[in-house]
Design goal:
Layout (H helix, E strand, L loop, with lengths): L4 E5 L1 H16 L1 E3 L3 H4 L8 H8 L9 E3 L1 H12 L8 H28 L1 H6 L6 H30 L8 H6 L11 H17 L7 H22 L7 H4 L1 E5 L5 E3 L26 H15 L9 H5 L5 E5 L6 H19 L3 E3 L13 H10 L8 E6 L16 H14 L10 E7 L7 H4 L4 E4 L6 H18 L24 H5 L8 H13 L5 H14 L5 H15 L6 H5 L9 H16 L4 H46 L1
Parallel strand pairs: 1-4, 6-9, 6-10, 7-8, 8-9
Antiparallel strand pairs: 2-3, 4-5
Helix pairs in contact: 1-5, 4-9, 5-7, 5-10, 7-9, 7-10, 12-14, 15-16, 20-21, 22-25
């Protein structure tokens, strides 16, 4: 189920359908079904369902309903003295008309894509199989049209509705019936009950109620369609594409509903970077990530760091177990949350749930879409860590990998690159793993920034790790810890943040991995390390050794170099006085960053940085490729040693 192509919905094509939509609002005809008429027998809310079922005065005759007339009547009842149509009523009428026009466009598109138009033309000559297919496609066309209509109404009205709709939901007694028989019947049935509710004296008590009710009504319609969509056939041409409305943020991708369960931030333990020992590379990276995310501009819906090449929508932290991955996740979240609170920015901490892989087919993909969807919300900063990423994003070709993992990876790849990947520069996904070699190759190739989480590495690191532990005893019983402190080191002195990557890297000159070193030597024998051709020839050599090395890896190296070029601190007073930078408009922010970047580049040497980053990346590729094999060999050797030892003991 690859979502690949995006189709534009052109505004001028919608203009032609608005007439049709406003016609529906003026009048539709609907004859209530028998079941809907009898709904009042076991109604949870006597008055409203009774009222809905008697909507045709109890006779089976078809009634004509007019939503626009009802809205005018509402205006008279709510605001008898007002001449113009009040804002909320106007917005609602407009949103429903837009939704209907968009639904009609989607229906026409489905007619053509699914071959329903052709069946429709020779309807009279169809045999029984043809008739079955025709009816089945009609149902699907109707369902998708109503879904698109409801989805668009919600897109336009949800921002204006009350935050808490629980009171309105209490009043709402559900949809007595939804018709998929034909597009015309589908619209008529939907508008008939919408109109009846609006006309009921208990539902609407203020003009704001009209928007709130409309949102509740169309949410219920979407739920109803979602419940019944599994019985629909011929849905391929719905599920394989995205429709995007021209000059708008509205897009519709299959049946997925971005409004379902808008994500809430998850609680986390507050941790400071100073409490994490070692991990200089990781701490530095995490700090850069937070500064970059905070530069996102909510007005322009873009991030100046994206233009400068210093933003990472997907990054990876890897290292042996016990080196502080979970602490690091909490520290990034803590730092982001504190700055966001300070700057009045909404923040979403959105870790991947452990229960993502589902045992039934399609379940995992659905859960994964649900998890990835909030990342497309441009109205907040989003940090989405995936801890122990090797569990859900494991190499798909490995033996025994479940269908669920494959589904999850499919969705991940689709949302991080391709038609679905909307990246405003406000969200970042972090993969954290002890076993990077077990991650799927395609997933790893999406990673644009990577760093080691290697825990304590120096004598001072181990000293500080112990200090963090016995310090607590020292605070409660001052003279209990009767040991001498080092004379030439202040505790935690090395645990601060580095100024830039140059401090951390201790200038790598040559690769440390044997095969990479060999390839490096070959390239060096042909070209000087300052020639552009040197890298072209090095990449070719690497590809001969590691066939999976591709253009995407080269792009990742380029983005690592861009990261180094934007590896500068934001000025401290920008944080103290947000109006200097954070509260500025996009252009100003971008220009300020460019100035900072130029000043920072003065001390840098492009060819040195390029060499360092290429060497780092290629060593990394080799390590990841090797570790898997090495782990298998080690396990085998250890098994053989155990057997040999056991034989010896048995012999004795």
């Amino acid at each position: 189920m690859e979502h690949n192509s995006t189709f534009p919905i052109k505004q001028n094509e919608l203009d032609m359908l608005r007439e049709e939509a406003s016609g529906y609002l003026k009048s539709v005809q609907w004859e209530q079904g028998q079941r809907a008429k009898n709904k009042d027998k076991d109604a949870k809310d006597e008055s409203i369902l009774l009222y809905l079922s008697r909507a045709n005065n109890g006779s089976g005759a078809t009634t004509i309903t007019s939503v626009s007339k009802t809205i005018l009547a509402l205006k008279k009842r709510l605001l008898p003295d007002s001449v113009a149509l009040p804002m909320c009523l106007n917005q609602t009428l407009y949103a429903v008309q837009e939704g209907l026009a968009l639904g009609a466009w989607i229906k026409d598109s489905y007619y053509d894509a699914s071959g329903l138009s052709a069946l429709n033309e020779r309807k009279a000559a169809l045999d029984s199989n043809g008739k079955r297919e025709f009816e089945s496609k009609m149902h699907t066309a109707t369902a998708f049209m109503l879904f698109a209509t409801a989805y668009n109404v919600l897109h336009n009205l949800k921002p204006h509705a009350s935050d808490d709709l629980s009171v309105m939901k209490q009043k709402f007694a559900g949809l007595p019936e939804v018709s998929f028989l034909s597009p015309l019947k589908g619209v008529a049935c939907t508008l008939f009950y919408f109109d009846k509710y609006l006309g009921h004296p208990d539902i609407i008590n203020s003009d704001k109620d009209v928007i709130d009710f409309t949102v509740v009504y169309f949410e219920a319609l979407i739920d109803e369609i979602q419940l019944r969509k599994s019985s629909l056939e011929y849905t391929e041409t719905i599920e394989d594409r995205t429709y995007k409305l021209e000059s708008s943020e509205f897009a519709i991708s299959g049946w997925s509903n971005v409004f379902a369960g808008t994500a809430k931030s998850v609680e986390f333990n507050k941790i400071r970077f100073e409490q994490i020992v070692g991990n200089r590379d990781a701490k530095h990276f995490a700090r850069r990530l937070t500064e970059r995310m905070l530069s996102y501009d909510f007005e322009a819906k873009q991030n100046p760091f994206q233009e400068l090449g210093g933003f990472m929508p997907v990054f990876m932290g890897y290292g042996i177990p016990g080196t502080g991955k979970s602490m690091l996740i909490a520290a990034i979240a803590t730092r982001l949350k504190e700055h966001c609170d300070n700057l009045d920015i909404p923040f979403l901490f959105h870790p991947m749930p452990d229960t993502l892989i589902s045992t039934f087919q399609g379940g995992s993909a659905e859960k994964m879409v649900e998890w990835m969807k909030p990342m497309q919300d441009p109205s907040k900063l989003i940090f989405a860590p995936i801890d122990d990423a090797e569990n859900n994003l494991q190499e798909r070709t490995a033996q025994g990998v479940s269908a669920g993992v494959k589904e999850v990876i499919g969705v991940f790849l689709r949302y991080t690159e391709g038609a679905y990947a909307v990246n405003y520069g406000n969200s970042s996904i972090g993969l954290f793993t002890n076993l990077p070699e077990m991650l799927d190759k395609a997933v790893i190739s999406r990673v644009q920034g990577r760093f080691k989480i290697d825990g304590a590495r120096t004598e001072h690191d181990f000293l500080d790790q112990d200090h963090l532990w016995w310090r607590k005893l020292d605070e409660t019983m001052p003279d209990f810890v009767n040991m001498t402190a080092p004379s030439d080191y202040t505790f935690l002195q090395d645990q601060g943040l580095a100024k830039n990557m140059g401090d951390i890297l201790n200038t790598v000159e040559k690769p440390s991995e044997v095969r990479v070193l060999e390839a490096y030597g070959k390239a060096e024998s042909k070209h000087g390390a300052n020639d552009h051709l040197f890298y072209a020839s090095l990449y070719k050599e690497i590809q001969n050794i590691f066939p999976f090395f591709s253009s995407r890896d080269v792009r990742n190296i380029q983005s690592a170099i861009s990261l180094r070029l934007t590896d500068f601190d934001l000025e401290q007073d920008w944080f103290d006085k947000p109006e200097i930078y954070f509260k500025q408009n996009y252009e100003t922010k971008f220009n300020m960053l460019q100035e900072l970047m130029k000043a920072n580049m003065k001390g840098l040497n492009f060819s040195d940085i390029r060499r360092q980053e290429v060497v780092r990346y290629l060593d990394n590729v080799a390590t990841i490729a090797d570790t898997d094999f090495k782990r298998k060999v080690d396990a085998r050797v250890s098994q053989m040693n155990i057997e040999t030892k056991a034989r010896e003991m048995f012999g004795k």
